[in-house]
Amino acid sequence: MASRPEDEHREPINEQAVANKYGIMRSELNQIYSKITELEMEVSEHSLVINAIQPLEPSRRCYRMIGGVLVERTIKEVLPAVQRNKEGLEEVVARLNEALERKKKEIAEFEAKYKIKIRKSDSETNDDSGRKEVSSQGVLVGPASGSE
């Protein structure tokens, strides 16, 4: 993303240069993933706000954070602005998804050109019981229902 145009089309000189360029490309891919995730969370928050205030009376008072300042407005004024912000965020997410696909394709072509193979570390391929270890981080499971 921050590389100069002449650097992108120049051939890497040695294995270290290929590895460095590949690392940079993977880092850019991870940055795009992170930004998409962050913006999708904002879209979700906007949806929650819209769903919470939509059924309320338009003349009802509400508060909105604008540039770090909490201002008092009516729902009639705030709802359209929140909806526009949500639509704008969705457009940005769509463009980032396109950029993500382009970057994935670029990385795949780079891997094919330089015959890059990703090795899995020993801990990923085998643990003591011979099966792959799976992380359950970020998953929230509620109690089982009694209707079984």
Automatic annotation (TrEMBL):
Q: Which UniProt keywords apply?
A: Chaperone
| InterPro entries noted in UniProt | PFD2, PFD_beta-like, Prefoldin
> Among the entry's GO cellular component annotations, what is one?
prefoldin complex
From start to end residue, where is composition biased (Basic and acidic residues)?
119-134
> Which GO BP annotation is one of this protein's?
protein folding
Any GO MF annotation of the entry: unfolded protein binding
Positions of the UniProt region annotated as Disordered? 119-148
Q: Name one Pfam family in it.
A: Prefoldin_2
**UniProt family annotation:** Belongs to the prefoldin subunit beta family.
This chain belongs to which protein, by name? Putative prefoldin subunit 2
Native organism:
Morella rubra
